[in-house]
Amino acid sequence: MSQPRTPAQVLLEARQKDSRQKRAKVLAVVDEMNAAGDQISFLAVARAAGVSNWLVYSDGVREHIESARKGQNGTKSRQKSEGSTASTASLATDLELTRAELRRVREDRDRLKKAVQRGLGQQIDQAGSADLIARIDELTSQLQQRDEALAAVTTAREQLQTALTEAQDDLIAVRSALRNMMRDQNGPE
Q1: Cα(47)–Cα(70) distance, integer angstroms
Q2: In the chain, domain spans
Q3: Angle at which helices 7-36 and 62-82 pack, to 10 degrees?
Q4: Which pTM does this prediction carry?
Q5: Region at 40 (left for phi over 0; alpha for psi -120 to 50; beta for the rest)
Q6: pLDDT tens string 115-128
Q7: Confidence of residue 130 (pLDDT cuts 50, 70, 90)
Q8: Polar residues compositional bias: what residue ranges (predicted)?
């Protein structure tokens, strides 16, 4: 039977496993970035893998990143000589054209937004006072009907309350008379 592990051994094994997983993740990220043609740097790899900077500089990982960077540098020089990458001036021109188009799109958006607001304002104005006055009259009529119904219900409630009070008084009188009659009946013989 195996001996039980101490907490220190369990912690050490967990840390070693975590370290192996992080290193494997870093190596996988380097391979993915290399395959995608992304610029490989120690900082970019650390951010993409979600690990600390010191891990990408550690032995076994650093060499892998450096070899990927060297391979990428050779590719860049070939691309420049072949003319397959854009120059800085070309990229700056593209950026400026994109900014100009973005300004035009924003102006169009603002113009259309104002047109929609004006159109909605006109629709509200056209709904006109005639429709609003008719709606107000309708609501006033409904309010009047409800007030009349409330007054009728209040009157009926007061009448019922009065009838209830009278019935209670009659009941008290009948009970009293009944007691007196029973007392007279059961009186001395």
Answers
A1: 20
A2: 8-78
A3: 10
A4: 0.39
A5: beta
A6: 888 887 777 766 66
A7: confident
A8: 70-89
Query: Rounded CA gap, 40 and 31, in Å?
Result: 10
Q: Which residues have a Cβ under 8 Å from the Cβ of 140 and sit 6 or more positions away?
A: none
Q: Give CA–CA dist 184/189, Å, rounded.
A: 10
Whose tokens are 């603002």? That residue is: 110
User: pLDDT averaged over the chain?
Assistant: 85
**The two structure tokens encoding residue 134:** 């008719």
Burial call 80-96: b when 16+ CB within 10 Å, e when fewer: eeeeeeeeeeeeeeeee
